[in-house]
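pipeline stage [seq->struct] | target=MarR family transcriptional regulator | organism=Actinomadura barringtoniae | residues=184
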Amino acid sequence: MTDLAPPVRDEAVSRFVERFASLLTDAGMPRMAARVMMALMVTESGALTAAELAERLQVSPAAVSGAVRYLTRVHLAVREREPGSRRDVFRVRDDEWQDAITNRGQMLKLWEQGMNEGIVAVGGDGQAAQRLAVAMEYYAYLRKELADMRERWQDHLAGVRDGKIDPLSDGPHAQILREGPAER
C-alpha cells in the first residue's frame, strides 16, 4: 500500500470515521459519541483535547463535552491531564472493544435472574414459563460463551503484545492492507 498525500489521506480518514461512527450509531451508540470515539481511534496517540476534537469533527465544544462524558461513563474513553498542562486530554482505551463486548456477563446474569423471577411469577408451567425459561437458558449460554471468548481473546492478545502475532501482517485483513480495499 502506498502512502497517500496528506489531503487525500485526511479525506479518507474522515470518511472512515463517519462511516464507522454510523455503524456504531446504528448499534445504539449516540451519534456524537460514536464520532468522537472514532476520531480518537484514528489518531496515532489515541488522544486529543476537546478543542482538537471539535476542530476535527467540525462541531461545537458543547457537542464534544456531551460525547466525552458519555464515553467516559461507559468506560470507552478516559480523561487525563497532560503533565504541566491545564487541558484535559481524552484517550481511547486499548482494550475498549473487548470490554464493550465481553463485559456483558454481569448484565446477562441479572437478566437470567430476572427471567427466573418471571418464571416464578407466572407459576412455573405453561407457555409463558417456557418462553421465560428459554430466554433464561439463552442468557446463561451467552454468559458462558462470552467468558470463554474473553479467555481465548486474552491468549490471542498476549501473542499480539509479545510480537508473536502481527495483526497488520498476520491477521485476516492483511491482504486488504497490502492490496487496498476492494471497490464497492
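stage status: PASS
auto-comment: The helical segments are 6-26, 31-41, 50-57, 61-73, 96-102, 105-122, 126-161, 174-179. The domain at 6-93 is CATH 1.10.10.10 (Arc Repressor Mutant, subunit A).
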